[in-house]
Design goal:
With 69 residues, the chain is mainly β. It is built from no helices and 5 strands. The chain is globular, with a radius of gyration of 12 Å.
């Protein structure tokens, strides 16, 4: 049986266009703007400024933080 990892922070507070960083173990893995997000906040798609788009799931162990403008 697979157990789901529960993140202490929900990602449903970020909006389309918000600048974010995704970190793992304190290191920034990817940064860019939120391109899309599921309604429950479990999944976000982030587009990097130089191009490229990645999907991140809350159960994958990433911390998502907004970047001040």
């Amino acid at each position: 049986m697979t157990s789901r990892v529960q993140s202490p922070v929900r990602w449903d507070t970020v909006g389309i266009g918000d600048a974010v960083e995704l970190k793992r173990n304190g290191r920034t893995v990817f940064s860019g703007a939120v391109d899309a997000r599921t309604d429950d906040g479990d999944v976000v798609w982030v587009t990097a400024p130089a191009g490229g788009r990645r999907l991140f799931h809350i159960a994958d162990g990433f911390d998502l933080a907004g970047v001040p403008a």
